[in-house]
Structure prediction request, 1692 residues.
Amino acid sequence: MTSPRRFDVQEERAWCPGCGNYVLLACLKEALHRLDKQPHEVLICSGIGQAAKLPHYIKVNCFNGLHGRSLPAACAAKIVNPALAVIVSTGDGDSYGEGGNHFLHAIRRNVDIAHFVHNNGVYGLTKGQASPTMDLGRSTPGQAGGVRSDPLNPLALAISQDAGFVARGFTGEREHLIELMKAAIDYRGYALVDILQPCPVYNKVNTLQWYKERVRPLGGEHDPADRLAAFAQSLEGDDGGIPIGVIYRKDKPTFADRLSHLAAGAALVDKALDPRAARVFMDPFF
Amino acid sequence: MTSPRRFDVQEERAWCPGCGNYVLLACLKEALHRLDKQPHEVLICSGIGQAAKLPHYIKVNCFNGLHGRSLPAACAAKIVNPALAVIVSTGDGDSYGEGGNHFLHAIRRNVDIAHFVHNNGVYGLTKGQASPTMDLGRSTPGQAGGVRSDPLNPLALAISQDAGFVARGFTGEREHLIELMKAAIDYRGYALVDILQPCPVYNKVNTLQWYKERVRPLGGEHDPADRLAAFAQSLEGDDGGIPIGVIYRKDKPTFADRLSHLAAGAALVDKALDPRAARVFMDPFF
Amino acid sequence: MSDYNVLVGGAAGQGVETLAALIEKAFHRHGLWVFGVRDYMSRIRGGHNFAQVRVADRPLHGPRRRLDAIVALNEETVRLHRDRLAENGKILSDAGLAVTDPALLSLPLERTARELGDPRVAGSLALGVVGASFGLDRAIVEGILAERFAGETLAVNVKALHGAWEWVTRHFPLPLGPRPERDRILVTGTEALGLGVLAAGCTFSAWYPMTPATPLMTFLSDRQGEAGIVVEQAEDEIAAINMALGAAYAGARALCATSGGGFSLMVEGLSLAGMTETPLVIALMQRPGPATGFPTRTEQGDLAFALTAGHGEFPRLVTALRTPADAFRQAARAFNLAEKYQLPAILLGDQFLADYVQSLPPLDFGSLSIDRQLLDPVAVGPDGEYLRYGLTGSGVSPRLLPGKVPGQVVMLCSDEHTPRGNITEAADVRTAMVNKRMGKQAMLSREVEEPEFLGEDGPVLFVAWGSTYGPLREAVEALNGEGHRVGALVFGDLWPLPTGRLQEKAPGKLLVNVEQNHSGQLARLLRQETRIACDRSLLKYDGRPFTADDIIVWSREEVL
Amino acid sequence: MSDYNVLVGGAAGQGVETLAALIEKAFHRHGLWVFGVRDYMSRIRGGHNFAQVRVADRPLHGPRRRLDAIVALNEETVRLHRDRLAENGKILSDAGLAVTDPALLSLPLERTARELGDPRVAGSLALGVVGASFGLDRAIVEGILAERFAGETLAVNVKALHGAWEWVTRHFPLPLGPRPERDRILVTGTEALGLGVLAAGCTFSAWYPMTPATPLMTFLSDRQGEAGIVVEQAEDEIAAINMALGAAYAGARALCATSGGGFSLMVEGLSLAGMTETPLVIALMQRPGPATGFPTRTEQGDLAFALTAGHGEFPRLVTALRTPADAFRQAARAFNLAEKYQLPAILLGDQFLADYVQSLPPLDFGSLSIDRQLLDPVAVGPDGEYLRYGLTGSGVSPRLLPGKVPGQVVMLCSDEHTPRGNITEAADVRTAMVNKRMGKQAMLSREVEEPEFLGEDGPVLFVAWGSTYGPLREAVEALNGEGHRVGALVFGDLWPLPTGRLQEKAPGKLLVNVEQNHSGQLARLLRQETRIACDRSLLKYDGRPFTADDIIVWSREEVL
Ligand SMILES: Cc1ncc(C[n+]2csc(CCOP(=O)(O)OP(=O)(O)O)c2C)c(N)n1
Ligand SMILES: Cc1ncc(C[n+]2csc(CCOP(=O)(O)OP(=O)(O)O)c2C)c(N)n1
Ligand code: SF4
Ligand code: SF4
Ligand SMILES: [Mg+2]
Ligand SMILES: [Mg+2]
Prediction:
């Protein structure tokens, strides 16, 4: 099939009406389509949450693992079978809360995967507690009296650790999001796209409209190769407008490039296994 | 006692001769002394590792918990008893590897603690594997063929998340380190001091001498209130010299300041407990 | 009125929960005994959710299969539950729905709501219909609305209620008794547990959201201001338990609550609690596993795990919560025992218990006491060095809080340690410390509570634990009523396992374990500790709770 | 030569390990059978470390208490171990040490080293002394140095060896037999296990450093280039197991190795393996707990935990490693069973087994086979949709690797799922999936291996598991030699528990469980699964391994 419909599956979507996840899913299918991918060539990994249900609604390979733990699984799958286009598409609680340590170290490891974070500011599936990106002071079920921690800034964090592709998308800007997704999947190395995804049920402040009034696509005046400029952009918030687009971009060796001991092109998944081949390792013990 | 010797304990130190940990310990005692602290007023939390043995060698309260998990314990202890001066003194593997997620979120939570990271680039106690701060490409026991991940930059990370006190110390600069420690303990909120601590046994590259040739105390020309400048400094490495001192500093409300529902000064540890006082919470259920 | 069972069903987001809660409270306030269960899907909108509200003039302990009325907020509700409707049962649903059924009482709910200008009052309309149908006192029902809504919203809801009330002819003429004083409460297991936690003086609690433990923490969080405590949402469960341990070390009574997956992440911390002899209470609210399993449903699948979770050997208390009232009492007791023996206590609940709602006599706060067993600071002079892990005659080392005695420091140590709390590698110290820690297990085993015996001594003895208490109690009572001499032992304390009553009751009987899991984990434990084997097993692991009917039918077919 | 036992002791960092390893290899290359154990502290420098090298002309299975020689690198070594020295035993130590002892053979090691201009050759000097003392062949010993050193370093070490050799008069005139061919290997448990892992075709392994699992991963890491595999140090154990699962899903044979604390962090992932039916092998190398415990010592404290670790119910294989040769074979078998039944397999080792070194016949790589049970891609046409969790007659769903068949996708799901692998909440699907998963447990129980029987049928039967095999075997042989009719059953497979041989052997015997833990975890498991109870227990939990002597002495006093 040559339309994005080759990625369709018959599966009822457990998302609320009006949820940004629908748009995100549609954009992802379109991006894969434009990249000419076939279902069996793509692997989407996710954790647990509303966002994390995404791979159930698209026909590709799916590793729907534990809450917070999709990044390590995704990196390993890519290492074992480099032919797969590996994408992590999961929630902000998943990526930055429970999975924060893996986020940090996935940047360092630089495996060639794309990481799409559905940033809705809340834990949707567990009914609206604050996610790490929610603003200080907002009351939620679970944070009576208001959030007491500063919001996490994932883009600034990624830039601080020199991630090679750091971007922000918005479900209210479809074409822009599709192209971001394409670029992230195409990028060789770990690519982060934090996606502003309104949750009309639990996040009554950061609505589609609220974002529409604030987002500001980065134009030619921004040089994504300039790390300090990128860092400054990543700190921009409500006042100066919320920048969307590729904030930082840099080419660097991937994990596979650094795996010098594996012959280029040799995939672990295709390795022939033979116990006798290991006999040589016994030699030094005689 | 009015000398730092009031913090001495009779306990054989399980550190190697020439290890930077000895200096770090001595500086910590001196800093506490200069701050006029008494042993019972101080709590040192640590995880597991060579660095993490520190609280056994100083007479203060000690929470020597799990590898990687000292930050949450320290934050909670401070919340429960604000009268304690709470310090985390532990390894780089502990703080940035196993404990990376807590590092990230301790910044957001901004409990009034000081975090001293013994940064030796290795996992000392487990015999020399790379810690997250070790350079790319270095071979270690466990990373045959060399480290394949970029080093973590803890200071850049802390600045990216707007930690209020971000500093680097060096065991080769004692007086400087003592004053940094003092300032960090005095700071109201989460204070990070990443301390360059040579490990003569397992880190043969980043030796005392190596650092001595490279560190560069930050002088008056650096404005620690300037976040972008601080970020730029945190990226400085071997070439431009390794800056030590307070890189970023900002006053902000602490966790306790945000605990508006607890009467100022009321310590949870001193709360009188009475089952009957809770009876009122049953009223709505009649 | 003997025993009515009303189902309210609809899609997630349609207000099933609100309506069911209103109906429950309305019956409850009439002096009837209520028992309500929830069946929710793991999603926020759509799908199919339902609640069953059972009402009777005597205390109720479990859900029932047969329905007397269905309040259908969508067609699917009728389709899915019609077969359970009693012969002269009624279906109440909106006239706009495509339902045709002889039992149907079609109501213009949506239309009226639109006329009233607020679609959200459909719930109050339905409440009015139910209230009027059951002959309730309108003033009481109005009062309940007034507790939930205010101002404009209240006014329009009351208007809806009135409208519905007038519209309805009385379909179930129920001779309701006099309205009693408010001498009974209506609570979920979560709420009773939360009240127990507050009564126990828990001052610090850390958590990470996870169904079905979330409601407990929301309950506590909502009250943190009034109670003057801290409830902190952590970045993950590992942080949560290590925070709780830091807080307990510093002197708080600390709690963690989670479900199986989160508990898995906590078990290293549990081991730390064991090694460092730090008191801690963990509420483990079970749901079907493994992994993510069925997030919103029920199971008793984590008993075996809880018994030995965490590496190495250390003492612990494992207590299953049987009923809301039991949860209240056990919470308070767990905090006391955790501090008395300086060990972790695990309260085993599950989604069924957490979410069901039951009418109860008020909880007795006066019967609880707080027993911290802390060392009196004046007992430690600045001369004698305080030894956190001192080997004393009592078998429990004295516990002092850090910062409370000048000159004294409190050492907590994760490695094997000396009496002072410093790292050691000595074989003899190790042996003494293991003996001390495990000795506390032996001490604790002398004060665990025997299982509750229900019913009659006879040829069949059921054994069970935790939340199956309610359905099993109803089943045993019904079977006794039919003349079958059956009894049941329902365990609360599970570790250390009390074995006396089982050893006394079991001989000569057919033993049947009734458990909400696949492998019969209680039966295994009984074999392990007593070598008494169950003869038959009634096991259920589809995520839905037992009803008394399930047990009765099975028993009649298999063991009676 | 019948049975010699040499202790090498000193502070951490003094080269105890290197010297002991050289001595071991020297004896080994002479066709003697070697058994070496290590006793290290959890520190890098200082403290007291020692190694015991036992040598005999027959296979050895455990350490011995009595010493025939002590090579002391510091005074403390003599102080700590002198009491174990046999009557005409010898102490070899440097003349510079303050040791006075009739057994002393004082050697100018340090001085000579200084003269040779390299203090690090003291080890080779000591090796020369030992080699000469025991009448070894100098060419063989030199060859061993040549395997370890090169160039200048080799030259100075050889010079040292020669010097020492000449200096020493022969104190133990040992008629060593002819030098056999190199037909035997000398390996630690770790090395044998590592060879098994490589032979099994493990292609991906993720870990986080933790004693005593670290040596295994270092072993694999050091060979990753030559073997063409990936060994990745993760940020934490949670990442490690989730990486391993991602790798296994994608088609690798994946391994994790850790100790108790790290395993605690992995158990949520273990549960995920169970739910998603992903094959995985975990080497759990035990050390004394709880919490950090004794990082460098041994215990069998995690059996009960391993049996039920992880929330929810799922099948697993738990196999204890008894000897290095067993570790080799079991590793290969675990990978096959994990893939055959699509479940996690836990290999239970411990520090004793991981670190002891033993002479063995070569491992038989030819006897191993690799059995992946993957679905042939051509069997899945693009028309029929591949169902990852299909309910087939075989009881095991067909496993396909992702990306291998155009048009087909492979769904892995942590929630309860449909045959395709999508989230479901249906009660009947749940029941079917639980039955399928747990059914694999039943299938597996039909191919577990019965415990090995040692010794003779008689009034006393020991039961044990894992690494106590060696000491127990020596004890049983010795007691049999003394005319005591005792036997032992040593379990490898523990879950599902094979019960046949126990049920056959136990009746009428005094059953004694010999375990390296406090609570007798095997005895509990046997009661649980068979209701057979042990009559007596020999338990040790001070972190040091059993010797045959311990078991013999206790048996003589208590049960013979
Ligand atoms: C170990 C563990 N802890 C907690 C949970 C419960 N849980 C499920 S989803 C979720 C939060 C989801 O939030 P997010 O990742 O932001 O996704 P969203 O629902 O907002 O799309 C949590 C806490 C879990 N499944 N596993
Ligand atoms: C959960 C867990 N994983 C692993 C270990 C093993 N371990 C002990 S110390 C250590 C590394 C210590 O490195 P670092 O924190 O840098 O301290 P250093 O020894 O270098 O001072 C590790 C991995 C452990 N104790 N617990
Ligand atoms: S809860 Fe929010 S994020 Fe989740 S599906 Fe509904 S609208 Fe979307
Ligand atoms: S191993 Fe390194 S860091 Fe650890 S004590 Fe020795 S020198 Fe210091
Ligand atoms: Mg979210
Ligand atoms: Mg370190």
